[in-house]
Amino acid sequence: MQIITALDTRITEQPVVLTIGKFDGVHRGHQALIGAAVQRARERGAVCAVLTLIRTRVPC
């Protein structure tokens, strides 16, 4: 597993199946979504990646 903190960082030269979401805890729904992405990546000979969105507090 790699943790990348910048979107301009290339993670691989291989094809990528990317799952994007606000993964604020890996509950059953998130597990199913990530599992489906892993399966799809395996079927295609690709790498699976997860892009998680973090909430930043913006003062009003």
Strand order of the largest sheet: 1-2
Q: How much helix, percentage-wise, in residues?
A: 25-40%
The secondary structure category is alpha+beta
What is the CA–CA distance across the termini? 37 Å
Task: Please write the string of helix (H) and strand (E) elements.
Answer: EHE
The global form is flat
Rounded to the nearest angstrom, the radius of gyration is 13 Å
Count of helical segments?
A: 1
Could you walk me through the main structural features you see in this protein, from its secondary elements to its overall organization?
This protein has 60 residues and is α+β, with helices and mostly antiparallel strands. It has a domain at 16-52. It has 1 helix and 2 strands; from the N terminus they run βαβ. It has one helix at 28-44, and strands at residues 16-21, 47-52. The chain has a two-stranded parallel sheet with strand order 1-2. The longest helix is centred in the middle third of the chain and has 17 residues, at 28-44. It is flat, with a radius of gyration of 13 Å. The mean pLDDT is 86.
